[in-house]
Amino acid sequence: MAYGNQGHGMEHVVIIGAGFGGLYAARALRREPVRVTVIDRHNHHTFQPLLYQVATAGLSASDIATPIRHVLRKQKNTRVILAEVKAIDPVHKRVIFEDGELGYDKLIVAAGASHSYFGNDAWEAVAPGLKTVEDALEIRRRVLLAFEAAEREQDPARRSAWMTFVVVGAGPTGVELAGALSELARHTLVREFRHIDPSKARILLLEGAGQVLPSYVPELGEKARQQLAALNVEVRTNCRVTDIDEEGVSIGDKRIEARTVLWGAGVAASPLARTLGAPLDRAGRVLVAPDLTVPGHEDIYVIGDLASLKQEDGTPVPGVAPAAIQGGRHAARCIARTLRGLPRLPFRYNDRGSLSTIGRAAAVADFGRLKLSGFLAWLAWLFVHILFLIGFRNRFLVLFSWALSYVTYERASRLITGAVPPLLEDHRAPELEARMDGGAVRRHQPMEPARTRA
């Protein structure tokens, strides 16, 4: 089935993905004489830099996610389709879904990236990554269930494994997760259990490179390591994971028993890149032309995490939100220039700096010549993230939640949703069998329904 088009006679611009790049491209085309179709497999835009706060119960999912239709509701030239694109046919200028296809005149591909386990795909089931709201909720669920299991566990070794959390990868995501986990355990949960002390939870951050935050200058990497140490996070660099299973992590012949392992070590480009027939880099990203078009297909732009492009100094354009936003705006500008008979322009990334938070009043910031750490960097991080959030409501709710959390250490979004699985193996079964005396101990008996008075 072919998806119908809205209106006739105008160029049809299709945007795949409503992340930072896709959404800002659509908004930049709001006054252009084009028809715009935004396609995403989710109905919401997610502010990915704050996913770790959802994963550690600091914010609710609705605080950082906004319905795409709501964001674009005032753009009369734009429609939204909820669907997952399976392939792109650049020859016939079509995007293909499971249940149909859609033609385009210009295409902006902003499909983003997913987790990369470096060929060890079996690890994904036991070490979830953090790219979507669903990922964040799953991590939150696993973390909170781990403390619940530890509260019930009688065996000290098994209890220790439940209270050990391993984060693989000390990039921004890993650093933020490790710091937030430590604060959750040491401050929020500390007085809520009776048989365990959550502040004794062990948080390990493993990194294969020689420093924390490898993309930052060594000075800030060391500052980040020191701030993590102050949060009782154990940092191990030059440490390569060789295996992960439900019981823990292996590093060569060394073993860490941990029932909760989180992945922040690598990303892989969307498989849509392979359907373009374009040259790819080792990470599967499209080697785009200087104007962000696909070589040989001047009507297709690739932006954000899916694009591979080097700057004038030879360094790659980073896969961060500001680069995606600038790429989306650039693609929209080039399309507008093409409609006016003007040539496209090369993309130049304006690096405004990098920020990474570590914990309460702890962060690092690199603004070129100005490098900050600690409280000032944390304030800069707060300001930038509030600024980039979509919508006044989300900005207000996040700012209010942060202010309340700063004063009270409270994290209100600590819900374990869905059916709770059996947390403990029944190591006491023989003992229970021996104690059964005429039905005095009954196991696995269904509960009788509650009776109410008529």
Walkthrough of the structure:
The protein has 454 residues and is an alpha/beta fold. The protein has twelve helices and 25 strands. It has helices spanning 20-28, 51-55, 61-64, 68-71, 133-152, 156-162, 172-188, 218-230, 321-339, 375-388, 392-408, 429-435, and strands at residues 11-16, 34-40, 44-46, 65-67, 78-82, 85-89, 94-97, 100-103, 106-109, 113-115, 164-168, 202-206, 233-236, 243-245, 248-251, 254-257, 260-263, 267-269, 286-287, 293-294, 297-302, 307-308, 354-359, 362-367, 370-373. The strands form eight sheets. The chain has a six-stranded mixed β-sheet, covered by helices on one side. It has a four-stranded parallel β-sheet with strand order 13-12-11-17. The chain is globular and about 70 Å long.
Concise summary:
This protein is α/β, with parallel strands linked by helices and 454 residues long.
